[in-house]
UniProtKB/TrEMBL annotation:
A Pfam family this chain is assigned to: CDH
Reaction catalyzed: a CDP-1,2-diacyl-sn-glycerol + H2O = a 1,2-diacyl-sn-glycero-3-phosphate + CMP + 2 H(+)
Membrane topology, as annotated: Single-pass membrane protein
EC number: 3.6.1.26
Signal peptide coordinates: 1-39
Family of the protein in this entry: Belongs to the Cdh family.
Compartment list: Cell membrane
Pathway assigned to this chain's UniProt record: Lipid metabolism; Phospholipid metabolism; CDP-diacylglycerol degradation; phosphatidate from CDP-diacylglycerol: step 1/1
Family matches, as InterPro entries: CDP-diacylglyc_Pase, HIT-like_sf
Source organism phylogeny: Bacteria, Pseudomonadati, Pseudomonadota, Betaproteobacteria, Burkholderiales
Name under which the protein is recorded: CDP-diacylglycerol pyrophosphatase
Keywords: Cell membrane, Hydrolase, Lipid biosynthesis, Lipid metabolism, Membrane, Phospholipid biosynthesis, Phospholipid metabolism, Signal, Transmembrane, Transmembrane helix
Transmembrane segments: none
Length: 264
């Protein structure tokens, strides 16, 4: 824990100098560290990166600045997180807090899951190989298990053990929930044949979680039901903090070291 000196013991000049140094340190941190480290000092760091750096650069120069890409028409950016070998984040260019935001369920909301799935190619570019769709995953955390207050979907490789466990759901009847235990926690899994319209994962989970407070308890992971999601479908994996032995985060089912790319 930092030692805090009572403010009334600090002279005004010294206090100003301390504040200046603090701002300078935070500015350096903002430019030099990942979103995970930034979260310790600024829960809006991701939003600032997208809104202050990436979008204006794309608008002014046609280049995405600090981001990998900025799609102004579809209203999202892709950012490479320096945590991990291949992890990317899809971040809306609109101000959206997260899974609990009513905006994600509105008729005109972008389909962030479909866009994130297309963006898995940036994971493959990072590891310099094509991966089967059931070895790639998308994930969003509950607000109780996240550090940033801007919606972001993690895009990365799956843990090998998680992919093996989910393989038993590859032929599940589409549209029906099946319960399972993954990495010691309870999840429900639904196979779907698309990620759009009624099969948008936000909409699927919201059917049983009718308001923002209920959605705030949830985590969602999406991965291919088999090697080709277009052929085999996708698995929507959901758990909540309101479930016995449930989870508000499925990020542990991802592997930011992407060992599957090395055949591990």
């Amino acid at each position: 824990m930092p030692i805090r000196m009572p403010m009334n013991l600090l002279k005004p000049t010294r206090l100003r100098h301390m504040l200046v140094r603090t701002v300078a340190v935070l500015a350096v941190a903002f430019t030099a560290t990942s979103c995970t480290r930034l979260a310790a000092v600024d829960s809006n760091a991701l939003w600032k990166i997208v809104d202050v750096r990436c979008v204006p650069s794309q608008q002014a120069t046609g280049t995405p600045g600090q981001c990998t890409i900025v799609d102004l028409d579809k209203r999202y950016a892709i950012l490479k997180d320096i945590v991990g070998r291949s992890q990317h984040l899809l971040i809306p260019t609109d101000r959206v807090t997260g899974i609990e935001s009513p905006f994600v369920l509105t008729p005109n909301a972008p389909n962030y899951w479909d866009d994130a799935w297309v963006s898995r190619l940036y994971v493959e570019k990072s590891v310099k190989r094509t991966l089967p769709d059931n070895q790639l995953g998308l994930e969003i955390n509950s607000p109780f298990r996240r550090t940033q207050n801007q919606l972001h979907i993690h895009i990365d490789c799956m843990q090998g053990k998680a992919s093996d466990a989910l393989a038993r759901h590859a032929k599940d009847t589409p549209g029906e929930w099946r319960w399972d235990t993954l990495d010691g926690q309870r999840y429900r899994i639904m196979r779907v044949t698309s990620l759009t319209q009624a099969n948008n994962p936000f909409r699927i989970v919201a059917r049983d979680n009718k308001d923002a407070a209920a959605m705030a308890m949830q985590t969602i992971l999406v991965t291919g039901a088999g090697p080709s999601a277009e052929k085999d479908g996708w698995l929507v994996v959901n758990s909540g903090l309101d479930v016995d032995n449930g989870s508000g985060s499925a990020e542990g089912l991802l592997d930011h070291a992407c060992r599957v790319a090395d055949g591990e």
